[in-house]
Design brief:
Elements: H1 9-15, H2 20-24, H3 27-41, E1 46-47, H4 54-58, E2 63-66, E3 70-73, H5 91-94, H6 96-108, E4 113-118, H7 120-129, H8 137-145, H9 147-171, E5 175-179, H10 188-207, E6 212-216, H11 224-228, E7 234-236, H12 243-250, E8 255-260, H13 262-267, H14 269-286, E9 289-293, H15 303-315, H16 318-321
Parallel strand pairs: 1-4, 4-5, 5-6, 6-7, 7-8, 8-9
Antiparallel strand pairs: 2-3
The chain binds coproporphyrinogen I.
Coproporphyrinogen I binds at residues 2-6, 20, 47, 49-52, 65, 67, 70-71, 116, 122, 132, 179, 181, 218, 296.
Length: 322
């Protein structure tokens, strides 16, 4: 349940005036924020408190996360020479606070810890657009007008993700999730040609460690089979595609993760429970299934609805309802 903490009063109290990147750089604070939703909801895993732009910010790309908006880049990447702004990540020097937070968490958690990184396309889209985008016009223009710069850029971003993920795995995370949040904006053809190779490079490199890999994007129903064919162990599904349909598209060789619409949790306990029951039934039919929301928890979510929902999901028995 990504950003589960956002709906919690204890999170808002702790974050106060610090920017999110400052909070990530403070291991005690990042550790506490990671623990909050686990304590409150009793979920089966924790996701590290960090952000997909942390490695790029750590190697000196000027990035800020602006409240209410998201990552903003002062000087967007538009030309071949901008690629030189991406030097290799040295995790012990550039992101020691991430390693420290993971080590603290491993001592404090009794559920698995999920580390993560942004996939090359999604991180590239922030660097090129300069911030959150609806149409990804600059990103698609670069792909289609300067292919060699595009491939050089996503290759460096793949190396950045690999270095960050390997350091998280060495520090003790039990699984990793690669977020290609905005890949759903691409056609199948563009995804397969411009994006899938760099993503596959990341997931295959990380696969060598034996750590479980999860891959997820929003609105990626039309790409699910391609995204599952990148070396991942688990494919995340957003709420637009049913797990039954995802199972047909992906095949049974990958576990599914998902996919309750976060808006239904805001709608209330009963609508969320009913939809969850359907998802649990479809997930049980597929085989491997990790129950999750189809995207992050919305800030207006009532924490008590989530608490009751977690209890319901834990108590659900596939034999009793089939
Ligand atoms: O839930 C957690 O706290 C876990 C830590 C976490 C994760 C896994 C954060 C903290 N960010 C992320 C990943 C992340 N960040 C993704 C991939 C997942 C997804 O699809 O949402 C993306 C796209 C980002 C970029 C980002 N950071 C956005 C999206 C903006 C856009 O382009 O629309 C935003 C709003 C942020 C800020 C942010 N990062 C994390 C939190 C809790 C927040 C919310 C703001 C805050 O509390 O200050």
């Amino acid at each position: 349940m990504r950003q589960a903490g956002r709906s919690l009063p204890e999170y808002r109290a702790m974050r106060r005036s610090e920017s999110i990147l400052e909070a990530v750089r403070n291991p005690e604070l990042a550790c506490e924020i990671t623990l909050q939703p686990v304590r409150r909801y009793g979920v089966d895993a924790a996701i590290l408190f960090s952000d997909i732009v942390v490695p790029a910010a750590a190697i000196g790309v000027g990035i800020e996360i602006v409240a209410g908006r998201g990552p903003v880049i002062g000087e967007p990447f538009r030309r071949a020479k901008d690629i030189n702004r991406l030097r290799p990540l040295e995790p012990e020097v550039d992101t020691p606070y991430v390693i420290e937070t993971i080590k603290m968490l491993k001592g404090a958690l009794d559920v698995p810890l999920i580390g993560f990184a942004g996939a090359p396309f999604t991180v590239a889209s922030y660097l090129i657009e300069g911030g959150p985008s609806r149409n990804f016009t600059h990103t698609k223009a670069l792909m289609h007008t300067d292919e060699s710069t595009w491939f050089a850029l996503v290759d460096r971003l793949a190396d950045l993700a690999i270095a960050s993920l390997v350091s998280q795995i060495e520090a003790g995370v039990d699984a990793i999730q690669l977020f290609d949040s905005w890949a759903g904006s691409l056609s199948r053809r563009d995804y397969a040609y411009f994006v899938q190779p760099a993503t596959t490079k990341v997931l295959e490199a990380v696969g060598g460690t034996g750590c479980a890999r999860i891959h997820f994007g929003v609105g990626t129903g039309e790409l699910l089979d391609l995204m599952a064919d990148t070396g991942t162990d688990v494919i995340g599904v957003d709420w637009r595609t049913s797990l039954a349909e995802a199972s047909t598209r992906v095949g049974t060789h990958r576990a599914l993760q998902g996919n309750l619409d976060p808006a239904l949790v805001v709608a209330g306990y009963e609508p969320a429970r009913q939809e969850s029951e359907r998802i649990l039934r479809e997930g049980a039919k597929h085989g491997g299934h990790i129950f999750n929301l189809g995207h992050g928890v919305l800030p207006e979510t009532d924490p008590d609805v989530l608490t009751r929902l977690v209890e319901y999901i834990h108590s659900w028995d596939p034999r009793a309802t089939q």
